[in-house]
Specification:
- With 295 residues, this protein is an alpha+beta fold.
- It folds into three domains: 125 residues, Alpha-Beta Complex (Sufe protein. Chain: A), CATH 3.90.1010; 61 residues, Orthogonal Bundle (Arc Repressor Mutant, subunit A), CATH 1.10.10.1100; 84 residues, GMP Synthetase, Chain A, domain 3, CATH 3.30.300.130.
- It has 13 helices and eight strands.
- The chain has a three-stranded antiparallel beta sheet with strand order 1-2-3. Strands 6-7-8 form a three-stranded mixed beta sheet.
- It is elongated and about 75 Å long.
Length: 295
């Protein structure tokens, strides 16, 4: 269950400006039903060039509805130049924050606004990045390198998991994750290197405390964000020598490909960032204390 602020719940349960503006001056449509999120934004200007009316229609979750509702409130009464300065961060901050895994909803709102303004100015009503020759990187969600570069730069992102949260790239088959990492390196440069966990320890033996700390850090930074993006989670149960015992939580606990996730994601990351000798076992009998309720 996502933790939403009161403002998110208010705009989700009582969305403002729902529908379509009659004879709109600008129309912007982003996302797709196939990807799980879609947004259509329409607006009409008054004689002074300010946004007199703006409405939206969206297909998505509570965050998508709330973000779209807030966007219409933020830009109403503004000139197009003023409206263009509204960012996805402004949308999220107005809502008192969004779950990290739902930040792509605020980005979708920003892109819909830009598409609508572009349409008003005589261009195709599609996200701006596709107009500049962006190359598709994530084929699952149709995300271009330009879109990825932008969310990295605008939101100071440094991991693939963060990029997935902000634009969904890498959240499907995962085949583009390597390419996303290269884009992050190109945009962020030295900052990414400074934040990366240390490489596998070779030659120097880790103490038990050091090993546990590195395992927990790697799980927190390299594994958990990806699982949470799909409604799952992971818990470190114990470390016995080179054996790391974990338990999957949430959606991952019932997932039929958890064996694949354990071997090709969890174990691979631990061997990459902690020690090449580590191997992972799943404890299927442990209790998820977060979901145990007192009678």
């Amino acid at each position: 269950m996502w933790e939403y602020t009161d403002k998110v719940m208010d705009h989700f349960l009582n969305p403002r400006n729902v529908g379509e503006v009659e004879n709109p001056d600008g129309v912007g449509e982003v996302g797709s039903l196939a990807c799980g999120d879609a947004l259509k934004l329409t607006f009409k200007l008054d004689k002074k060039g300010r946004i007199a009316d703006v409405k939206f229609k969206t297909f998505g979750c509570a965050s998508a509805i709330a973000s779209s509702s807030v966007l219409t409130e933020l830009i109403k009464g503004k000139t197009l130049e003023e409206a263009m300065k509204v960012t996805n961060r402004d949308i999220a901050e107005y809502l008192g924050g969004l779950p990290e895994q739902k930040m792509h909803c605020s980005v979708m709102g920003q892109e819909a606004l830009e598409a609508a303004i572009s349409n008003y100015r005589g261009h195709a009503a599609i996200p701006h990045d596709h107009e500049h020759g962006g190359r598709i990187v994530c084929t699952c969600f149709g995300v271009t390198d330009k879109e990825i570069e932008r969310v990295i730069r605008d939101n100071d992102l440094t991991t693939v998991e963060q990029v997935t949260n902000y634009c969904k790239a890498g959240g499907g088959c995962g085949g583009c994750r390597g390419e996303i990492e290269k884009i992050i390196q190109a945009v962020q440069g030295q900052k990414v290197k400074e934040q990366m966990p240390p490489p596998p320890r070779k030659g120097k033996k880790l103490t038990t405390i050091q090993k546990i700390q590195l395992v927990q850090q790697t799980i927190n930074e390299q594994v958990r964000p990806a699982l949470r993006a799909h409604g799952g989670n992971i818990e470190l149960i114990d470390v016995e020598g080179d054996k790391v015992i974990i338990a999957f939580r949430g959606m991952c606990a019932q997932c039929k490909i958890s064996e694949f996730t354990m071997r090709d994601v969890v174990e691979a990351k631990l061997r990459e960032f902690v020690s090449e000798d580590l191997y992972v076992e799943e404890d299927k009998d442990s209790v998820d204390v977060q979901h145990v309720h007192k009678g």
